[in-house]
Amino acid sequence: MRWSDGRRSDNVEDRRGMTMGRKVVGGGIGTIILALVAMYFGIDPSVVLQQGGSPLTAPTETRQAGKPPANDELAQFVSVVLADTEDTWHELFRKNGKTYQEPKLVLFTGAVESACGYAQAAMGPFYCPMDQKVYIDLGFYRDLKDRFQAPGDFAQAYVIAHEVGHHVQSLLGISEKIHDLQQRSGKAEANQLSVRLELQADCLAGIWAHHANRTRQILEAGDVEEALQAATSIGDDRLQQQAQGYVVPESFTHGSSEQRVRWFRSGLESGSFGSCNTFGGGTL
């Protein structure tokens, strides 16, 4: 991926290595675990936290975040990818008569406090609609390469573009509508809605890649294959097979490997919002 000469975003908050204080939050440890699981599966964790019981203490940052150092190549890469999503979505929103509001991206190590609650790095990258921020521990990229066998800088860019896709859904009011439906649905239907939301974010990541490459020629040989391998590696069926030795499609929340690849490719090839209607009914 051609990125070294790209613009750096001003919206990166570097909280890595920050000291953590303590503050009281609602809910017992079971509630926090449920909230983390909800966050991973695309459900607003604040819904879980608001239903918690007895209070407990949880870490919270105690000093102001800074900017990534210039000699930190991976952090600079993240900043360039974020800037590229900003440029792309500003233009696409403008063409549709809307104004794009840029999200912040927070780099952290180990654990972080967001407006959606306390989260650990093990949960992976996530987007919090309550503060419009993407959160990522850069150690996830090591896992992406070693644990999920999905190396490459464009695979890393796909991860960021997917989370920014959730931000786009939030700005368009899609996420709120789906979360409202989930609260009124049974478990199976709520899972299906989550799958459709996640697959749409994959498709939106593909739209970003389509337009970024058309205007700035960011792709090199093998880049698309890197992103497709990343999408394949984090499909629900593959993750379930690795974790428990069998697959339960009814419990999917992000989509199968085949679905994630297909919807990312749909956005990549068309560059059109119309290609990302995962809520149009029928099979995914």
UniProtKB/TrEMBL annotation:
Signal peptide: none annotated. Its main location: membrane. It comes from the Bacteria. It is found in: Membrane. GO terms for cellular component: membrane. It is a single-pass membrane protein. Keywords: Membrane, Transmembrane, Transmembrane helix. InterPro entries: Uncharacterised_pept_Zn_put (IPR007343). The chain crosses the membrane at residues 24-43. PANTHER family: INNER MEMBRANE PROTEIN, PUTATIVE MEMBRANE PROTEIN YPFJ. This is Membrane protein. It comes from Geobacter hydrogenophilus.
